[in-house]
Amino acid sequence: MSANAQAKPIKILVVDDTVTNIKQLEAVARKLGHEVVTAMDGVEAIEKYQAEAPELIIMDIMMPRMDGIEAARRIRELPCDRWVPIIFYSALDSLSDILRGFEIGGDDYMVKPANLQVIRAKINGYARALGMQEQSLHYARELAAWRDEAEEQNKLGQYIIGRLLDSKGLRDPMIQWRNTPAQSFSGDLVCAARGPGEVLYVMLADAAGHGLSAALTALPLTQVFHGMVFKGFPIHTIAEELNSKLKAFLPIDRFVAASLAAIDTRNQTIEIWNGGNPEVLFVDDDGQVTMRWPSRHPPLGILPPELFSGATEVVNYARPGELVMVSDGIIEAESPDGQRLNQAGLDALLGQAPTGLRLAAIEDGVKRQLAGRLEHDDLSVLVVRVPIERRRTLRAQPAAATAHSLSEWRMELRWGADELRGIDVVPAMLGFIGQIKPLQPHQGSCS
Amino acid sequence: MQISEKIDGNTARLSLEGRFDFHSHRDFRASYDALLGRADIRDILIDFARVDYLDSSALGMLLLLREKAEAGGKKVRLTKLTGSVKQVLEIANFGKLFAIE
Q1: What is the ipTM of this complex?
Q2: Residue A431 and which of A115, A220, A347, A447 are 20 to 30 A apart at CA?
Q3: Which of A204, A252, A295 has the most B C-beta neighbours within 10 Å, making it the best mutation to test the interface with B?
Q4: CA dist., res. A409 & res. A436, Å (int)
Q5: How many contacts, defined by CB atoms under 8 Å, are there between A and B?
Q6: Higher per-residue confidence, A206 vs A183
Q7: What domains can you pick out in chain A, each with its CATH number?
Q8: How far apart are CA B54 and CA A228, in angstroms?
């Protein structure tokens, strides 16, 4: 609203013990289009102020019962959520009278009798200012409503996303993890689940950006990950499927860096796919980083399926240790003087902490690096304990299947070279076997 | 982020300076929008010599530029990558998506 805009009509309280003065001011104000309420003394002024909620007050000073100064002082003490200007209009013209008017909270002072043109100009000036106040109060109210609504949506979003991301795999005794959002939502994602044959699958994903938009970007990954792990798909197929899903769902400028690992303690192998995340590390029990898997691929959701590579790296391990995955927020954690933690800093943190305490060591190290600064990126860490198992153990002993009437079943599947080239054997076999009801409770427990 | 443009024949060089992050969205887009409409420009060269920070939103903006440029038969090349900027682009394997000099 510009200062020259036509003033909106306002409600004016005119207080004076002389009827002719009231009539004069009332006539001027009404002619300008404003509404007028009147009072004959200070007591009535307060009553009318409370009953009529005027937007501007023109107040005489010398009046019976209660003078204008006292009335103005009491009005200023009343609770109020907006500015209601008070113009004193009095025959008292000494400097001390005028200053007293301002001291108790008056906004202006006119000495009687004032020129009519000046009165008109003053009233309109205040009406314009009040119009601007009205406008900004309106904006403030609108903003507050937006904020309330956003908070409400945030709460619901956090609840739903929290539910969607939780899984019993994340409570696996082999893993420790932490995911600290920069805002109310994290664009980082940590997933863990057991596949058939006790193989532990983990994923640490980091969606571009942060906040709710990043959290939404990463969300499609969880269902695909859990579904495919449960069915026994290998990592390269899981990576391909995650990429296709994201490519189909996300706009061009959105993508998700991810590292996937399958840890098979029975065969002592670790298989890794890393697209866009910092190096995945294997730390032995002496704190040495003995293996590294740098990012070999662009992040998920960028390449079309025909150009995407799910190629993984598989290693055998002979000594126990821990597999460590971090999001880039960790290595990019910046000290107040602009020093980043970097890969070397992370390696050092891992070397200083014993097995089992490395997650805490990374957290402490990042906190020291930031030195009180607020991190602007999501921070996540996943540590998998990789043991050497002396003997095969099952996490849970399912009930024996032999007691069932179908216990005498036998099944044989044959695949030739052509089929073997084109299918993932474990999920294909489990697809058949899963049809047999008494075996369903055993799925995922043993191969 | 400051962006300056220099056109040499069929190549437009956009020299970036400062932090290339989610705040740069509007400026970066404005810097290439006009170039995409010009038939004489075949190559868009992004010069990172004076960029000291690059985040994942910036990578997204590069992908968007690449998509639009390719739709118009233009190539996007990245040049003068150093330090942490080079590191971020390497981790994201953007060498598989862009010509890098």
Answers
A1: 0.92
A2: A220
A3: A252
A4: 9
A5: 56
A6: A206
A7: 11-138 (3.40.50.2300), 170-386 (3.60.40.10), 401-442 (no CATH)
A8: 34
